[in-house]
Amino acid sequence: MLKGKKILVAPLNWGLGHATRCIPLIHALIQRGVLVYLASDGVALRLLKHEFPELPAFELPSYNVKYASKGQFFKLKMIFDSPKLLAAMAKERLAIEKLIVQEEIDGLISDNRMGALSRKVPSVFISHQLNVLSGSTTWISSTFHQEVIRRFKECWVPDFDREPNLTGRLGHLKNPRFSIRYTGPLSRFEKRDLPKKYPLMVLLSGPEPQRTFLEEKLMVELHAFEGHVLFVRGKIEDEKTKKVITTPRGSIELVNFMQSEELEKALNSSELIISRSGYTTVMDLAKLGKKPFLFLLLVNTNRCT
User: Fold this and answer.
1) Where does residue 157 rank: exposed (0-12), middle (13-18), buried (19+ CB within 10 A)?
2) What's the sign of the alpha-carbon dihedral 234, 277, 164, 129?
C-alpha cells in the first residue's frame, strides 16, 4: 500500500532524541518500499544526513530556542521566546507546503515540529508528551500543545497504551480529543551480549547551554574515576574526532559523536551509563536493559539534579 509513496519525515532539532528515534521509523518505511525524504535543521539534520546519506534532505527554518542558563529563569525565557517560536512555525509551515508541491510528497510525519503539517496530505505528529508537565503552568502548556496536535490527522505516541509504560502522565490522556496511536517504544538499538569493555559510559545530547554545562561538570568529576570511561559528547560535526585523556586513576576516551551501529556496540559493551534523561535515551536504555544514572536537569552552572 505504501510502496512507491513519498513520505517526508521531519524531526524537531531540540537535542538529538527526536531525530534518533525517527531512525528505526525511517528504516521501517524504506523496507516497505517508501521513498523517504528528510527535513529538519541544525544537528538533527546533520545526524540524519550521516545516517542516511543517500536520502534527499532539506533544511527547515530553525526554532532556535535555547534553555535559560539558570533554572529560575526557565519559564520566563520560554515566554519571551514564544513570539520567535510562533514566527518560526509560520515559516516552517510555508516551507513544508512548498516542499510538498515541489517534491510531490504523499504524506508527512512530524516528530514534534509543530509547524510541519499540511492539509494537502495526511500529516502525523509524533510525541510522547501529550501533557506538558510544567508545574503551576501545566494546564496552559498542556492545552496549547494539545491544540497543536489536534491539527494533525493522528498522533503517534512511542509508548505502550497500558501499564506498565514509560511515559506515565506525559503520554496518556483520560479523555483525548484527537486520534492517538500507541506505537510501542522506538529505539534504533538491539540488545547484544558483548564483553564489558567500559566500566562507565557517558552519553550526552540535549539543548544548549545545559549540554555544555553538564559536560564540563562531568569532565571534572570523572578525573577521579578509577577505570576507562567512554565519553560521547553528542556534538554532531562533519568529521568524527577522538582523543584519550589520561587521569590519575584511569583514562577518558572522548569522542564527539558515534553513528548508530558503533553506538549500539558501545552501549552494549558498557556496565553503567550516565546520561541526560531525555525520553529517547530512556527508551534506548530500557530496550538494552542497561543500568543508568540519569541527570534530570542542569538547573544552573553550579548544581545538577
Assistant:
1) buried
2) negative
So what's the pLDDT on residue 87?
86
Nearest to 93 by CA among 113, 79, 78: 113
Please write the tens of the pLDDT for every residue from 89-131: 899 999 999 999 999 999 999 999 999 999 999 999 999 999 9
Q: Provide the b/e sequence for 196-230 (b: ≥16 CB within 10 Å).
A: eebebbbbbbbeeebbebbbebbbeebeebeebbb
- CA–CA separation, 286 vs 187, rounded Å? 9
Q: What is the largest CA-CA distance in the chain?
A: 61
Strand 6-11, strand 107-111: pairing? parallel
Structural domains in the chain plus CATH codes: 6-182 (3.40.50.2000), 198-304 (3.40.50)
CB-based contact 195:269 (threshold 8 Å): yes
pTM above 0.70, yes or no: yes
- Residue 187 near residue 24 (C-beta atoms within 8 A): yes
